[in-house]
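User: I'll paste a sequence; please echo it back and then give the predicted structure.

Assistant: Echoing your sequence first, then the prediction.
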Amino acid sequence: MKKVLLASLILALFFAACGSKRSTVLKHPNGTSSGSVNKPNSSSSGNKGTSVSGIAYIDRYKGIAIEEMNKYGIPASIKLAQAILESGNGNSYLATNANNHFGIKCGGTWNGKSVNRPDDTDNDCFRVYNDPEQSFRDHSQFLLRKRYENLFTLRKDDYKGWARGLKAAGYATNPRYPELLIDLIERYNLQQYDQAEAPVEVVARVEKVEEVIEEKEVEEPQTQVEEIKKPVAMAIYEVKATDTMYSIAKKYSVTVDAIKQWNGLATDTVSLGQLLVVSK
């Protein structure tokens, strides 16, 4: 990495480390606060929007998420939140039949097993993994591209920066995608799995990641990101005071069960200000 970029990174990390950490709350369109951010215990499903299936999913895959974070710097909270969204807590067709928890397609470099499913076309090719852990590792490889390179200069515990950076880099098309990730992370207290880094550790990791990205660019120059994974285009809805799960499902012409699966919810209960995926 260029010396100027490294110097800027060190300065940014220094000032960030000196600043105090402040909790945030989601804002409603009228500017009022939705209340303090809940920090649910990972062993309890009694908090806003949490579910037994979501907690079980996190308990099963938090280890591989932490392992990948320590290797490349992707916050474990971000990886887990994206997996929850894209696999419906591991209940999607691709997750249950192909161990594919992030919807990654075959692309031009995939030589493994595959399965065909309707997506952009009626017969799109998706990767089949030997186990879910392989899918989590391949998600890291997907992000190791020039498009997402600047994200790796962020600290491993900067989940808000990563959530916003993913949207800015084109990972998702919905403008509320960062808020949905942050909502999931704070709802399930996923930030507890992220680990702080000293500035010198960040710089050393960034240099290694940049080398990996450069090598991938040489090995896969013909592969377009869109061939492997299209930007997430899910519709996201913020629950209002008079909403019920049924009224939201009716509004978007989907089933209650579909909304519950997409959001990893075990009951029909919704909370004011809660963000829900209502279409994929």
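Residues 15-47 have pLDDT under 50 and may be disordered. The longest helix spans residues 52-72.
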